[in-house]
Specification:
By secondary structure, this protein is mainly β. The chain is built from two helices and six strands, in the order E-H-E-E-H-E-E-E. It has a domain of 63 residues: Alpha-Beta Plaits (2-Layer Sandwich). The strands form three sheets. Strands 1-4 form a two-stranded antiparallel sheet. Strands 2-3 form a two-stranded antiparallel ribbon. Bound molecules: iron/sulfur cluster (2 copies).
């Protein structure tokens, strides 16, 4: 008699880690293949986005996003505590880690 194996999601985590856009995702499973920690698992429904089974084990390496052939289909959702942002006083511009066009590094010496 063949034994059955069941996949059980971790208890709900405060962090979603990975989000999919169901309209853009083709279910190619490339993101599942490249995730080294097996955070993602294939969806039993073919063509549907993978399932985030272990969000608390995601270390935000970005491989899944980088390898996705459908731009915008998958994105990382950093926990609130990791969403560091800063504001340039002179102009009011707001910056955050991971933004697409980060500002040039500050070359001014610190004010003592
Ligand atoms: S960011 Fe890295 S660890 Fe997290 S799901 Fe994607 S590939 Fe896996
Ligand atoms: S690699 Fe992109 S398109 Fe393919 S299953 Fe993952 S999110 Fe969907």
């Amino acid at each position: 008699m063949a034994e059955k194996a069941y996949l059980v999601k971790n208890p709900p985590s405060a962090c979603k880690a990975i989000l999919f856009d169901g309209d853009l995702c083709t279910g190619c499973l490339e993101c599942v293949e490249v995730c080294r920690t097996d955070v993602l698992m294939p969806n039993p429904k073919k063509g549907e986005p993978p399932i985030v089974v272990y969000p608390d084990e995601c270390w935000f390496c970005g491989s899944c996003v980088a390898h996705c052939p459908s731009p915008g289909a998958i994105r990382m959702e950093h926990p609130l505590s990791q969403r560091v942002g800063w504001k340039r006083k002179e102009t009011g511009e707001f910056f955050r880690i991971g933004m697409k066009n980060p500002p040039a590094p500050n070359t001014k010496p610190p004010i003592c």
